[in-house]
Structure formats: C-alpha cells, structure tokens
Amino acid sequence: MSFPIAKKAAYQKFRNPASRYALVGVFVAKRPSEIRVAVTGAGGSGVFRVTAFEEALKKRFSPKVLEGLSVPADGMSSDIHGSAEYRAHLIGVLARRAVAAANEKPDAPVAEATA
Q1: Which H or E element spans position 49?
Q2: Per-residue pLDDT tens over the stretch 14-44
Q3: What are the DSSP calls for 72-98, one per residue?
C-alpha cells in the first residue's frame, strides 16, 4: 500500500470546551496532482470531504478562494456545544485557516510513503 506525500498540509480544529476534542476539525492537503479537504466532528456520519472547497483550491491554493463558499448545515451534528449551522460555519473558517497554515510551511519533497 502506498500513499502520496502532500506538498503542503495542515489541520485546524475548534476544541470542545469540556472535552478539548475537536468540535469541528478541517484537514487540507495539496498533493502533486490533487487537493483534499476533510472534515471531522461536524457531521453525524463521521469524516467527510468538501469537494466544492477542493475544486476551488485546485485553481489557487489560497484562503481567499474559499471566501463566500459554504457548507450546508443539513446532516451536521447539533448539540449543546454547537448548532448544525454553527458547525457548518466553522468548516469554512477552519478551512481558510488550514490553507493559510499550510502555505506558511515550506514545500515537502514529492515522494510516496509505502507500508
């Protein structure tokens, strides 16, 4: 099994104040041939990708291209710590922060990890 190593990557999370686990977490990765945006903590079905963000970031890997894009609240978790709408909003905020953080790091060498 092999996994391509990302040229740029970062993870940002908004911590649940009680447990310190991610209320919402967003991971972004820029690989040589693709972009991935994965979200955890927000949806009722576990981790999911945001393909609309991935498509926008393919054009330019910059937080600015995500401005104005949003994720619908349908299917998001909702509890005393955050409504579905709040979690959907956090995805956009954290995605922009993750892209900014990834761009602050030097490019990683292009290679593949094997297991």
Answers
A1: strand 48-49
A2: 998 888 888 899 999 999 889 999 999 898 8
A3: -STTB--BTTB-HHHHHHHHHHHHHHH
